[in-house]
Write a structure and sequence with these properties.
One of its GO terms (molecular function) is transmembrane transporter activity. This is FtsX-like permease family protein. It is a multi-pass membrane protein. It is found in: Cell membrane. This protein has 436 residues and is an alpha+beta fold. The chain folds into two domains: 174 residues, no CATH class; 245 residues, no CATH class. α2 runs antiparallel to α15.
């Protein structure tokens, strides 16, 4: 019976083609506006590293001065070099990494290529396993290179191709920042969205991918300048060593826990560490030490802003307005079929049969609106993505959003068809037969 009613619904699309086309277009526009904004919101608020996000933890220690302190406020979301080194040596968690941004010049060996600027990151070795960075060639640097801050580099596939073509560059040397670095690896396409590890001190949650990675201690050994956030609420002396000894916060830190149940243990250790540092005259604010997993970190950094949520709400408001218009058009469409309903009722069709038939016809209209809405949504996302590379990474529709498009369209059409369908069921057969 469903198949029969469905075929009737498909045939009904050819009745009053102008009215039907108008309904389909109204639904399509409403669905496209809602789905395109929902897709962007879905990507922005999605889990960038599923299965591991609860075990990757950002610790925050407030080491600011007591003078001028307002409880609940903090000077930055990074930590000092002293704290970063202590946490690296703590042995807590399965893995640990400290990182900071870096930028500088590359001097290609090719004479036909000018000097150019690159931006990247200076993590410790555990970074690659923690964040599941895929390698196209080679791999991470060794533990010995990590501790020594050796002149080794991992290049992005784009930078490697730019410098060495399609050849495997592992073992080659590239001059960066005025030093010769040995290429130990090339990482493939790795572009988590949002870029949770680079929200602060870098291109942001939706910025461009890193072009290289060099050891954290290498950047310190070469006294590289800071590329990213730095907050110095206390005075420090001149020179690079004074920066390392200062309370300036400029380094981001991550732990990887073996399991989620290890989080209370890490919190206890961090509290004990802070208490020990206070005995040494530091951390005088005595502010709570905080831990954030990946999703909590995205929320803390307000990756999904109020304007994004407001846009989604306005889009759904527009869809509601489209539903109101669709209800009016369905009422007009079904009202002219009152004689047909009267005849069917006189021949023995129940109100339930009429209700089911007309509701399925509404669903067919919704399905047609979903197909057109999907086309319009993809066009809208393409147009939005062309504005900038940062926005482009949020405009990719996945299978879930494809399914949502059709569910939303059909559900909206069924919802809009409830009142017209109910009205159609109230037709009195005797009155319709007398009028014929």
């Amino acid at each position: 019976m469903f198949q029969y009613y469905f075929l009737l619904g498909v045939r009904s699309l050819r009745r009053n083609p102008v009215l039907t086309a108008l309904m389909v277009l109204i639904l399509a526009v409403g669905v496209a506006a809602s789905v395109s904004t929902l897709t962007i919101l879905h990507v922005m608020s999605g889990d960038p590293i599923p299965g591991k996000s609860e075990r990757l933890i950002v610790p925050l220690i407030d080491n600011g001065p007591l003078k001028g302190y307002t409880p609940g406020e903090r000077d930055g979301d990074e930590m000092s070099y002293r704290d970063a080194v202590n946490l690296l040596a703590s042995g807590q968690g399965d893995r640990r990494t400290a990182m900071r941004g870096a930028s500088g010049t590359v001097e290609p060996a090719r004479k036909d290529m000018p000097v150019f600027t690159v931006e990247g990151l200076t993590p410790t070795r555990d970074f690659f396993a923690m964040f599941e960075v895929p390698f196209q060639y080679g791999g991470p640097w060794s533990e010995a290179d990590d501790k020594a801050g050796a002149d080794v580099v991992v290049l992005s596939s784009k930078l490697a191709e730019k410098l060495f073509g399609n050849a495997n560059p592992v073992g080659q040397r590239v001059r960066m920042f005025g030093f010769d670095y040995s290429v130990v690896g090339v990482f493939g396409k790795w572009d988590p969205v949002p870029r949770f590890h680079r929200i602060i001190g870098g291109p942001g949650a939706f910025g461009a991918e890193d072009e290289f990675y060099i050891p954290f201690h290498n950047a310190v050994r070469h006294e590289m300048g800071q590329n990213g956030n730095m907050n110095c609420s206390s005075e420090r002396g001149p020179g690079y060593q004074a920066l390392l000894d200062s309370e300036c916060v400029w380094i981001q830190f991550w732990f990887e826990l073996h399991s989620v149940s290890d989080r209370p243990q890490l919190q206890a250790w961090l509290d004990a560490y802070a208490a020990e540092q206070r005995k040494l005259g530091r951390l005088q604010r005595n502010a709570p030490n905080k831990l954030f997993n990946v999703m909590e970190w995205l929320e803390e950094q307000k990756v999904v802003g109020k304007d994004s949520r407001l846009s989604a709400m306005l889009a759904f408001g527009f869809l509601l307005l489209c539903l109101v218009n669709t209800i009016g058009l369905l009422l007009a469409k079904f009202s002219v079929r009152a004689p047909e309903v009267g005849v069917r009722r006189a021949l023995g069709a129940s109100r339930k049969d009429i209700f089911t038939q007309f509701l399925i016809e509404s669903a067919v209209v919704g399905l047609a609106g979903g197909i057109l809405g999907l086309v319009l949504a993809l066009a809208a996302l393409t147009l939005i993505g062309s504005i900038s590379e940062q926005i482009a990474v949020t405009t990719h529709m996945d299978w879930m959003m494809l399914l949502v498009t059709f569910v939303m369209s059909v559900s909206a059409a069924i919802l809009a068809g409830l009142l017209p369908t109910w009205r159609a069921c109230q037709v009195t057969p005797a009155l319709q037969l007398k009028s014929q």
